[in-house]
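[recover] target loaded
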């Protein structure tokens, strides 16, 4: 009988490569928000997958990017800091797009580490055009030696192609050990952050790209009763003009955001949800450590 294996696996990549989609697909439950807007994920989220002879604790990181500012430099630092305590790195790339400068930053960091790496070549359901570009770029960085890379594997996080093979490879590379979490635990992501992420996902869904980058959600209250949960949250923006856009004409946009978010919140809490949303202008909030700490974006 094979021995039990366990360990932490960091999912790493630039924005919009499908990290959150992959995590949600593997866990068969939504723990990380998904949007076409880059930099949707702003937290390091842990998702727990229990298999017959293994437990994999996934660390879904924010996308590595080249944006400037306190918030974005802090998120990059958070990503690379999260790699210190993992047993395996799952490096996800989008083969529908050519490698860009973010790939240079990521590969330059990874080739220096002794942690095993699997490169998952994602979105093969759309195109396989740039698979060789990523493979050759890695070979160039390692001068043909490949290490610490163990495997290349083409996948579709959305459609599920080759995910069983990917799981087998991850389990193969994990050390023997005991489970870190009870089987009932799917994530240790704090509840208030999960609520905030659901609301921000709807902001990303309904508004133009430039608005979500300048928004954050701060959950002020979660009052859970027997048959209902009451939530009070603020949507933070940088400018009064952004506040007007989020509220919308006669309050239609914020009502639409709230209605959509409430449906997901009712699934999360398994009961009726009452959601009260306010929009607050906090000028230059992305560069204020006090605000970033409240939001959970600041490195400890």
């Amino acid at each position: 009988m094979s021995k039990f294996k366990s360990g932490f696996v960091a999912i790493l990549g630039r924005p919009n490569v499908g990290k959150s989609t992959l995590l949600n697909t593997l866990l068969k439950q939504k723990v990380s928000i998904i949007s076409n807007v880059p930099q949707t994920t702003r937290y390091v989220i842990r998702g727990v997958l229990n298999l017959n002879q293994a437990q994999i604790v996934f660390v879904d990181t924010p996308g590595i990017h080249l944006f400037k500012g306190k918030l974005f430099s802090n998120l990059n630092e958070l990503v690379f800091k999260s790699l210190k305590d993992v047993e395996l790195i799952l490096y996800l790339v989008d083969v529908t797009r050519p490698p860009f400068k973010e790939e240079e930053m990521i590969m330059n960091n990874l080739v220096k580490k002794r942690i095993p790496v699997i490169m998952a070549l994602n979105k093969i359901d759309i195109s396989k055009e740039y698979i060789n570009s990523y493979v050759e770029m890695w070979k160039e960085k390692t001068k043909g030696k490949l290490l610490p890379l163990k495997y290349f594997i083409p996948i579709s996080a959305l459609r599920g192609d080759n995910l069983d093979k990917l799981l087998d490879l991850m389990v193969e590379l994990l050390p023997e050990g005991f489970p870190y979490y009870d089987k009932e635990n799917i994530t240790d992501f704090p509840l208030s952050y999960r609520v905030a992420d659901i609301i921000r996902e709807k902001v990303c869904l309904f508004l133009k790209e430039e608005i979500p980058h300048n928004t954050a959600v701060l959950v002020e209250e979660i009052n859970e009763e027997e048959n209902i949960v009451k939530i009070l949250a603020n949507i933070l923006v940088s400018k009064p003009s952004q506040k007007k856009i989020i509220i919308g004409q006669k309050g239609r946009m914020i009502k639409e955001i709230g209605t959509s978010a409430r449906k997901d919140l009712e699934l999360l809490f398994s009961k009726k949800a009452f959601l009260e949303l306010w929009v607050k202008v906090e000028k230059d909030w992305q560069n204020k450590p006090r605000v970033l700490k409240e939001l959970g974006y600041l490195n400890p």
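[recover] notes: The radius of gyration is 20 Å.
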